[in-house]
Design goal:
This protein is an alpha+beta fold. It has 18 helices and 21 strands. Strands 1-20-19-15-14-9-8 form a 7-stranded antiparallel sheet.
Length: 542
């Protein structure tokens, strides 16, 4: 189905793609992938492996996710040849409103403190994946993370700068109100007040204790038991908005994946409130444009950038909790509407504005098993450590997903209690002619749809193998006509884009350019994977 050269690596890379016959697991920290592989070697399936990895990643990479994260998943079950979608994103506390936020002097949602916190969905998502498709009990799946938390794990290289940077953000929040953040500081900073560095051993016995509680109750304690009571009590004591009923009524949702055809391949995403639809819109705009034969041309970058900018202008305007969206998914994906958007693209950079379609800091992991099952899974705090709030005695750090709400009453994404926010995390999945090819993802806030589109173009248009695909230098549109290019982008392309009207910035750190993983299943059943050179991960293969 896919055509690529496994000996071709056009970009500077220290990695080769990896083959496996029976199973494969990939994520941004080596130990995480190994945990998933151990599960499959003991007879567990791809879903079991994904859940075990998800439970370990808050320990292995706390700068991206935690026990207070949200998660989304796309799950291919070979036996019934069906792709399932799981939305385990949370909702705003019923006691919170836009008027309260404005009354505290905010003109937009903050990213620290209790205001941007929402009921976390990740533990419920783990339990629901296990209930529907798992073959092993949660106690067994959580055991590797429990052991590692008590023994300690070394901090990885690319985690260090994120830990250091975010500690400054949370230190600033503590100066304004120390009560919600004091336990976070006690947990994540060393005794001398400095952040953990690469190679330091991070021990977190409370994390192990809470995982044991979650396993013993199938995660019910988090929503309708002891852990919920601890979260709510701390919230109410330190100025938060959570009430017990916010948790008691929460359940993850199974959703129908959305998809589009891109040059004979089916690209699948989670529907809103996630912004995976941005990927599908951009690809539909892009497929009507002519791309140069060679990837590293200014016109290639320009056409991808312009397609993404137009798609983002719409999704930032219209995507919200689907119960509140006035614009339907089919309207946003309408061929006629996207053709009209495509017609706006010229040889000059545009400053995108939303059209009217009604007229007509995250971790990613993927797994594949011997039976043909595959999982694309993403889990996130949003801004690295999230809200900077940790609940004493629980190891639960709370995300700040509510930061993406709007305070404009005309917006579909207007903050209301009990509502889901616009969400940036998106797992991806690729298929062809009804047959699965495999999971892929690129984590990193608003870089995620841009990373997905660049991965798909590299794969489909330029026939790159999965490692070459991830090695390729990336760009990121950051608003108006501003684009960031990795320093590996050839200078002549940067100059060409500047000549076309783009405001070009060359970034020296690639940590903000997304971190991805890919697993493809070939026609003979062989698995082949690539892992992100911008992160610390390796692929575990069997």
């Amino acid at each position: 189905m896919l055509e690529f050269d496994n000996q071709k690596y056009s970009y500077s890379s220290r990695r080769n793609m990896v083959y496996a016959r029976k199973a494969m697991a990939a994520t941004s920290v080596p130990q995480g992938a190994q945990i998933g592989m151990d599960v499959m070697k003991r007879g567990g399936n791809a879903v079991d492996a994904a859940v075990a990895m998800a439970a370990a990643m808050p320990l292995l990479e706390p700068t991206g996710n935690g026990l207070g994260s949200d998660c989304f998943a796309l799950v291919w079950i070979e036996k019934v040849k069906t792709l399932y979608g799981l939305n385990a994103s949370g909702v705003a506390p019923m006691a919170l409103s836009a008027d309260i936020v404005k009354g505290k002097g905010f003109s937009k949602m903050p990213k620290t403190g209790w205001i941007p916190t929402m009921v976390p969905g990740a533990p419920g998502g783990w339990a629901e994946l296990n209930r529907r498709f798992g073959t092993r009990p949660l106690a067994e799946l959580f055991a590797p993370a429990i052991s590692a938390a008590r023994e300690g794990v070394p901090v990885q290289v690319n985690v260090e700068p994120q830990w250091a940077k975010d500690s400054k953000r949370i230190a600033a929040a503590m100066e304004k109100d120390s009560a919600p953040h004091a336990y976070w500081w006690q947990t994540f900073m060393k005794e001398d007040g400095s952040p953990y560095r690469a190679g330091d051993i991070f021990r977190w016995p409370e994390y192990a204790d809470t995982l044991e509680e979650l396993a013993a109750t199938n995660c019910e304690s988090y929503y309708r038991g002891k852990l919920m009571e601890q979260i709510v009590a701390f919230s109410q004591k330190t100025g938060g908005y959570f009430q017990e009923e916010d948790f008691r009524t929460y359940h993850p949702q199974w959703v129908e994946p959305i998809h589009t055809d891109y040059k004979g391949y089916t690209v699948c995403e989670i529907p809103p409130n996630g912004h995976g639809i941005t990927v599908l819109m951009a690809l539909n705009i892009l497929k009507g444009l002519e791309l140069p034969r060679e990837k590293e041309q200014g016109e290639t970058y320009h056409n991808i950038m312009e397609s993404l900018k137009l798609a983002f202008a719409d999704t930032k305007t219209y995507v919200a909790d689907p119960r509140y969206m006035k614009t339907r998914v089919d309207q946003l994906l309408s061929p006629g509407y996207l053709a009209a958007r495509r017609a706006l693209i010229s040889d000059k950079a545009l400053e995108p504005k939303a059209g009217d379609p009604r007229c007509g800091g995250t971790i990613y992991l993927c797994t594949a098993d011997e039976q043909g099952n595959m999982v694309s899974f993403i889990q996130s705090n949003y801004n690295r450590f999230g809200s900077g709030i940790a609940v004493p005695g629980t190891a639960i750090t709370i995300q700040d997903r509510g930061a993406n709400f709007s305070l404009d009453p005309e917006s579909d994404n207007y903050l209301e209690g009990g509502k889901k926010a616009y969400h940036t995390i998106i797992p991806g999945f690729l298929a062809k002619d009804g047959k699965p090819i495999g999971p892929f993802g690129v984590m990193g806030g608003f870089m995620q749809p841009q990373g997905h589109v660049q991965v798909i173009v590299n794969t489909v248009d330029y026939h790159m193998n999965p490692q070459e695909c991830l090695d390729a230098p990336r760009f990121q549109w950051v608003g108006e006509k501003k684009v960031q290019l990795e320093r590996e982008v050839p200078a002549h392309i940067a100059q060409k884009l500047a000549d076309m009207g783009h405001q070009v910035e060359i970034v020296n750190s690639n940590l903000g350019m997304g971190r991805g993983e890919i697993i493809w299943r070939m026609e003979d059943g062989t698995l082949v994977g690539g892992t992100e050179p911008r992160a610390d991960g390796t692929i575990a293969a069997w």
